[in-house]
């Protein structure tokens, strides 16, 4: 029987992880939920991956979370673990290189831009003065961590006085400063497009609460079914492809000049999307993974 590991840092399976496990079971595979903290990698053909000290024999690993606030050392270890899996023929979804690339907000946007995909003006710097000059140039900007998710730690500022405090906070934490042009959202919403294996399987509008700018479902935004233009759908699929992702949540903001890709999430949640559209991404993803294993 095909064995699939669902890899996360949450002690108990999240809703999305449970949906994946259910979908794999229905398709005749055996899913297991594993935690980063009990994994090991070794330079050994006999037992390259271990879990709780025992050989981890699986056909695929679905990475549902890398963890937050990781040290550089843990970050490097988790990359090494996934690359070890790949080197021994285990399918890793999303692939390690693509997963870590998408986690780096600046580099992933730079690569999208170099491939002709519209993105906001963005800089990353260790120079607080340069960050403040960029805020002054842009007028309105978003300051956020270079890695992260769910909208946590992101601040919208429209003057250098406010930006000064956020910039100083990031500097005091020895963090680089990521400054992005604030895009005024059409109808205070963005579009989340869920891509699996080269197809846009579902789309939603994420509408921010009144008086609030963040459109993350985890921050209280409302999800409604969306029917984006074919151009936007094609852009979302291409964005995932350019970054090497098998599945992704692509966030797009429409404005007066067209649209821009704000971010590509390599471990997207989908509870709100599934409730709004009736599409089950877990089933689509499970089928895509099993097809890859058969190949």
From TrEMBL:
Keywords: ATP-binding, Ligase, Metal-binding, Nucleotide-binding, Ribonucleoprotein, Ribosomal protein. Residues 109-290 form the ATP-grasp domain. GO terms for cellular component: cytoplasm; ribosome. It holds the Pfam family RimK. It comes from the Archaea. GO terms for molecular function: ATP binding; ligase activity, forming carbon-nitrogen bonds; metal ion binding. NCBIfam families: rimK_fam. This is 30S ribosomal protein S6--L-glutamate ligase. It comes from Pyrodictium delaneyi.
């Amino acid at each position: 029987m095909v064995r699939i590991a669902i890899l996360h840092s949450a002690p108990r399976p999240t809703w999305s992880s449970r949906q994946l496990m259910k979908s794999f079971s229905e398709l005749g595979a055996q899913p297991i939920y594993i935690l980063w903290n009990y994994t090991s990698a070794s330079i050994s053909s006999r037992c390259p991956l271990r879990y709780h000290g025992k050989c981890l024999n699986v056909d695929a690993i679905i990475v549902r979370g890398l963890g937050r606030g990781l040290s550089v050392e843990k970050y490097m270890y988790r990359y090494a673990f996934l690359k070890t899996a790949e080197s021994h023929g285990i399918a890793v979804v999303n692939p390690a290189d693509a997963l870590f690339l998408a986690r780096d907000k600046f580099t992933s946007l730079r690569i999208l831009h170099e491939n002709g995909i519209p993105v906001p003006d963005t800089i990353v710097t260790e120079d607080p003065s340069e960050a403040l000059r960029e805020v002054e140039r842009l007028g309105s900007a978003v300051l956020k961590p270079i890695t992260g998710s769910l909208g946590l730690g992101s601040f919208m500022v429209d003057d250098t006085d406010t930006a000064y405090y956020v910039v100083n906070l990031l500097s005091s934490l020895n963090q680089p400063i990521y400054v992005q042009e604030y895009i005024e959202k059409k109808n205070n919403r963005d579009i989340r497009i869920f891509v699996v294996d080269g197809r846009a399987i579902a789309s939603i509008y994420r509408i921010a609460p009144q008086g609030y700018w963040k459109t993350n479902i985890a921050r209280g935004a409302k999800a409604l079914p969306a029917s984006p233009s074919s151009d936007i759908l094609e852009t979302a699929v291409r964005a995932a492809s350019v970054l090497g992702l098998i599945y992704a949540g692509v966030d797009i903001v429409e404005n007066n000049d067209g649209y821009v890709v704000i971010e590509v999430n390599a471990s997207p949640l989908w509870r709100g999307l599934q409730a709004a559209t009736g599409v089950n991404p877990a089933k689509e993803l499970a089928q895509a993974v099993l097809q890859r294993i058969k190949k």
